[in-house]
TrEMBL record:
Protein name in UniProt: Iron Transport-associated domain-containing protein
CDD domains xref list: NEAT
UniProt KW keywords: Signal
Organism placement in taxonomy: Bacteria, Bacillati, Bacillota, Bacilli, Bacillales
Keyword Signal: yes
Amino acid sequence: MMKSFKKMMPLMLLVMAVALIVQVGSAFAATSKNYNVLKPDGTISTWANSYAVKPASVASDGETVTLAFNDTTYIQSLTIVDGSGSHTYYGTIVGSTRVFTFTVDDFSVNTQAKLHVIVPGIYDTVHDIQFKWL
């Protein structure tokens, strides 16, 4: 019996190593999450919904979201409002999009946010919005 165990040991170690690699690899995989950008009352999509790049990406921690908006010349910042206060993100410009990364604790409720838009010489305002996670 000990001889057969010794013969099987390399195979068992190989199977365990492959299982570990698969498990670790899946832990780092991001998932997609679709969303809509709604008006402050949460009833209908806002103009910002047409600028949103979808779907968003959710990191393996299940809370870190990365999403983007087209037309980086107008959208300046995104402020997420949650139970711990407000957190403003200026994002990273990638081509013609501005990419934001932030955390979401609960995807079952809308995320309250503010989007700062500037059209030079014409328009400078902060819009209250909500992200509805689908």
